[in-house]
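[agent] plan:
  1. take the single chain provided in the ticket
  2. run structure prediction with default settings
  3. attach structure tokens to the ticket
  4. add a short note for the reviewer (M.T.)
[agent] executing step 1
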Amino acid sequence: MGKLTFLQWHKHGIKGDKPFKRGAVGTGLVRAFGVTFAVLVMMGFVVAITQQSVYNFSLLTLFTVLVAAVIGGGSAGAAAGIRGWQHGGATGLIFGMFFVVVGFFTGIPIFDPVLITSAMTILGSIGGIIGVNLPSARKRVVKRRYLVR
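[agent] step 2 finished; step 3 output follows
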């Protein structure tokens, strides 16, 4: 079994290596929004083709958004290659705040905005730790570090 990495410290001697990579967080946000959009389109398709009188997708929507925070955090951690908890947590925090703000402006009742945002931040951090430890992310980061010297 290989070693798991929870932290990988910044090496100051490497040119172009930054401690916080905004592009990685952007990658995670795009992935999280993509997953959410895809599932919402599928739910809309179910509503369009079935003839039920009542639809209750609130639990499925909440589950989708929470899983999207994990997936977004994982892709942010994989893209950053370092500090997956930090990049994944930032992705989850921004995604959670966006979800709460959109819910407020569209009139969708959010049960507890602070709890939802905190849960997304924690799940994003967990996803970031998983993303940093993916074998494909390790290979990509190692190759990039040797090319930058």
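[agent] step 4 note for reviewer: The chain has five helices and no strands.
[agent] ticket updated
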